[in-house]
Amino acid sequence: MGKAKKYYEAVFTDSGTCMIGCGHKHQNITTATACISQPGGYVVGVNRWGKFRQLNDEEEEAEFQRVMFDHDKRRDSKVPLGLPHAKNV
Ligand SMILES: [Zn+2]
Q1: Which residues contact 62 (CB under 8 A, 6 or more apart)?
Q2: How far apart, in whole angstroms, are the C-alpha atoms of residue 65 and residue 19?
Q3: How do residues 43-84 score in pLDDT, each as one tens digit?
Q4: For an engineered disulfide with 7, which of 3, 21, 24, 25 has Cβ 3.0 to 4.6 Å away?
């Protein structure tokens, strides 16, 4: 099938100029999306030459949107438990 080398990275842009990838080789969009740590981050595919490519496939883009939506919904329950939370002042 020739898809063994395909992977994804979570990326964000630094001041809109520099694109920085997370450096992992995510096997699917779901785990790459979970790796996004900054608002405005997104997911790109990486081709076999290590170049970023946009999610140009309808299926990939749709999956990204779905996972992002889910990620967003769960954000409230992702407050780190060990840390004091400044909200209760
Ligand atoms: Zn990652």
Answers
A1: none
A2: 20
A3: 999 988 889 999 987 899 999 999 988 866 765 555 554 445
A4: 25
State the pTM of this model.
Answer: 0.68
Residue by residue, DSSP assigns 35-87 as: T--STT-EEEEE-TTS-EE---SHHHHHHHHHHHHHHHHTGGGGS-TTS--GG
Domain coordinates of the chain in residue numbers?
7-75
Rounded to the nearest angstrom, the distance between the alpha carbon of 11 and the centre of ligand 1 is: 8
Distance of CA 89 from the midpoint of ligand 1 (Å): 34
**Sign of the Cα pseudo-torsion (6, 75, 81, 87, in order):** positive
**86 C-alpha to center of ligand 1: Å?**
28
For residue 32, the CA-to-ligand 1 centroid distance in Å is 5
Question: Which tokens in the block code for residue 32?
Answer: 């790459």
Q: Which residues pair with 84 in a beta bridge?
A: none
